[in-house]
Amino acid sequence: MTTPKEQARGKYSVTLPPELAERAKAKSGPNGFSNYVEKALRDALVRDGMQEYARLRGNDPIDDVFEASEADLEDAA
User: Fold this and answer.
1) Of the chain's two ends, which shows fewer C-beta atoms within 10 Å, N or C?
2) Gap between the Cα atoms of 29 and 31, Å rounded
3) Is this prediction's pTM over 0.85?
């Protein structure tokens, strides 16, 4: 049984490039890989929501810092 602060969990299978999974595992530390992936998904959903809000308001949702960090991630892989 989960307490009010705990969320029910499900087990899912995802396919990732090995180097990306290894980098995430190395960064996940004592909180574990699942928590690291959960945080990344939550962050992505918030970012997607902010971009959709900006699009609906007629603003340009392009973020140069975000694009630069994605380029750095690709270069490091």
Assistant:
1) N
2) 6
3) no
What are the structure tokens assigned to 7, written together?
A: 């969320």
Q: What Rg do the C-alpha atoms of the chain give, in angstroms? A: 16
In tens, the pLDDT along 19-52 reads 999 999 999 988 799 999 999 999 999 988 888 8
C-alpha span between 66 and 74 (Å, rounded): 13
From residue 46, give the alpha-carbon distance in Å to each of 5, 52, 71.
21, 10, 20
Q: Residue 24 and residue 33: Cα distance in Å, rounded?
A: 7
Q: Is 32 helix (H, G, I), strand (E, B) or coil?
A: coil
